[in-house]
Amino acid sequence: QVQLVESGGGLVQAGGSLRLSCAASGRTFSSYYMGWFRQAPGKEREFVGAFKSSGGDTVYADSVKGRFTVSSDSANDKVYLQMKSLKPDATAVYYCAAAIIDYRDYDVPRTDRRYAYWGQGTQVTVSS
């Protein structure tokens, strides 16, 4: 069992930056995919970025590539989402998620159904 707690959300002006944190507890995330998703009002939850904790590339949604960066501090079981050049359409609740690694996966999962563990979410609001 993994517990995830996000923090760092808030109000930021368009063009600004924000860093979200996700603290993991319970079992360590050494055998998980760790990812970020977001859900805007009236929209479905969408993939932002994720990585395989045992190594490999981090994958991103095309809409955030080059502006958002997912990183981790494995010693402290934390995952971060650095967001730059924020746009108003980034306004959403951001969720940290974890998925158990399956040897049949050919890539880092991008669908939320694949992730079994979720944080409570943190609100990010980007004003124009």
Describe this protein's structure.
The chain has 128 residues and is mainly β. Helix content is 0%, strand content 51%. The chain is built from no helices and eleven strands. It has strands spanning 2-7, 10-13, 18-26, 32-39, 46-52, 59-60, 68-73, 78-83, 92-100, 117-118, 122-127. The strands form two sheets. Strands 2, 4, 5, 6, 9, 10 and 11 form a seven-stranded mixed beta sheet that branches. A four-stranded antiparallel beta sheet has the order 1-3-8-7, with no helix packed on it. Strand 5 and strand 6 (59-60) form a beta hairpin. It is globular, with a radius of gyration of 14 Å. The protein starts with a strand and ends with a strand. The mean pLDDT is 94.
> What is the 3D form?
globular
Q: Note the total helix count.
A: 0
Radius of gyration: 14 Å
Report the portion of residues in β strands: over 45%
Structural class: mainly beta
Topology summary:
Layout: E1 2-7, E2 10-13, E3 18-26, E4 32-39, E5 46-52, E6 59-60, E7 68-73, E8 78-83, E9 92-100, E10 117-118, E11 122-127
Parallel strand pairs: 2-11
Antiparallel strand pairs: 1-3, 3-8, 4-5, 4-9, 5-6, 7-8, 9-10, 9-11
